[in-house]
Design goal:
Number of domains: 3
Strand order of the largest sheet: 3-2-1-4-5-9-14
CATH architecture of the largest domain: 3-Layer(aba) Sandwich
Order of helices and strands: EHEEHEHEEEHEHEEHEEEHEEHEEHHHE
Structural class: alpha/beta
CATH topology of the largest domain: Rossmann fold
Bound molecules: nicotinamide-adenine-dinucleotide
Number of strands: 18
Largest sheet: 7 strands, parallel
Length: about 375
């Protein structure tokens, strides 16, 4: 049932509230009459120019680290709800940073609430589709499978699809929509989010502190930092196109993903906060449907008003999943739905991009670093076009 008590004006904390999803969640909370405090480090790799102008003057802004006990205690004091959205996100190998920023900070929130008997009524946490690792598939012979990630040897052979993991089976798997039931992360980031998710449910239940973990698919829209290495395909391809260069597609471009508008994500966060049916649950927050990367690129190219063919180079990014498309059926049962199509995402994102001061395409610099670090690798296929 919709939970009336949360609708009474209350003060809430949004960690990571200067970021992409955090700031849109803050704006929606303010619109709904909540008082908002933000705790954000203004991490330099996301905010190289400091505090973003889009942060409302109505926000009480605390600059600080979510893994710092004093900063977190100050931020928690006097609020009745928490949105824990701050995170470290990257493809690099500083594994401990993921655990510190994402998981340790979550445990710290619970520790302080329990120790100081703080009057917090609900915590909504940013989890991620990455908790599913390679995702959910079906084999013609063996039925549903949750395979591990593909080996480097397989990818070097340009053998992109997933093999059935059952001994002796020669079938390729077909992807199916991912529900919330089984997690199987294989990156430090995914593991940090899976642990956050479990801490939330288990500690929440133990201490009667309602929580909801939100497993976002790829979130897109205005304010997605150009500088965040994780901000992904829309930003990278848009900057390539604006600079009249072709987007570079890894593998064969047939990999499926789902994309969700940041405003739909902000609504999901607030809904999960306000609705007690979401208590102690985890929810996928996904796009309308899956789309392969080639079709996605075509739509984006059209939206950008360009006539440029992408390059399918035969490179691959080691650690990428093949097909990951979430089902948001569970969240839809609470009344949420996608209000924005992929076309809306592109329109809103492009409008914002053209308002930014520096539209330089840095893809080649970043690609060179990722190749040196063997994150991006060449398969046996040479450039196809
Ligand atoms: N953007 C996506 O596609 C996506 C997908 C799945 C999950 N998520 C999760 O959603 C949340 C928000 O992501 P986003 O895309 O808005 O990222 P973002 O980088 O735009 O925002 C994150 C914010 O957290 C702050 N931050 C980072 N480390 C901090 C720390 N130690 N202490 C305090 N603040 C810190 C940053 O300064 C930034 O303002 C994250 O938890 C992320 O893991 C995002």
């Amino acid at each position: 049932m919709s939970c009336g008590i949360y609708k009474n004006l209350m003060k809430v904390l949004v960690t990571g509230g200067a970021g992409f999803i955090g700031s849109h969640t803050v704006d929606l909370l303010l619109q709904k009459g909540y008082e908002v405090r933000v705790l954000d480090l203004l991490q330099e790799r996301v905010h190289p120019y400091g505090k973003p102008e889009y942060i409302s003057k109505e926000v009480e802004f605390n600059q600080g680290d979510v893994s710092d006990r004093d900063a977190m205690l100050n931020a928690l004091n006097g609020v009745e709800g928490v949105f824990h959205l701050a995170a470290y996100q990257d493809y690099m190998k500083d594994f401990s940073n993921f655990i510190k920023a994402n998981t340790y900070s979550t445990a710290l929130i619970f520790e302080l609430i329990v120790e100081k008997k703080l009057n917090i009524k609900k915590i909504v946490l940013a989890s991620s589709q990455s908790v599913y690792g390679e995702g959910k598939y079906t084999c013609k012979v063996h039925g549903i499978q949750y395979p591990d990630s593909r080996s480097v040897e397989q990818l070097e052979e340009a053998d992109w699809e997933i093999h059935c993991p059952q001994a002796g089976c020669k079938e390729y798997l077909t992807s199916v929509l991912i529900d919330e039931a089984v997690t199987n992360p294989f990156t430090a980031y995914g593991i940090s989010k899976e642990a956050l998710d479990r801490l939330a449910v288990k500690l929440g239940k133990r201490y009667q502190l309602p929580t909801a973990s939100m497993r976002y698919s790829i979130v897109q829209g205005p304010r997605n930092s150009f500088f965040n290495a994780y901000s992904g395909v829309c930003r990278i391809f848009t900057l390539r196109l604006i600079n009249n260069k072709p987007p570079a597609i890894y593998e064969d471009g047939k990999q499926l993903r789902d994309y969700v508008h940041v405003l739909d994500v902000a609504r999901a966060n607030v809904l999960a906060f306000e609705d007690s049916r979401a208590d102690y649950e985890s929810f996928n927050v996904g796009g309308i449907e899956g789309i392969n990367l080639l079709d996605y690129t075509k739509l984006l190219t059209k939206a950008a008003g360009k006539n440029i063919e992408p390059v399918v180079s035969g490179y691959f990014r080691y650690g990428d999943t093949r097909h990951t498309v979430s089902s948001s059926e569970k969240l839809k049962k609470l009344g949420w739905k996608n209000e924005h199509t992929l076309e809306n995402i592109f329109k809103d994102y492009l409008k914002w991009v053209y308002e930014q001061p520096d539209l330089k395409d840095r893809y080649e610099e970043i690609e060179a670093i990722m190749k040196k670090q063997k994150v991006i690798r060449q398969s046996k296929i040479q450039a196809l076009s």
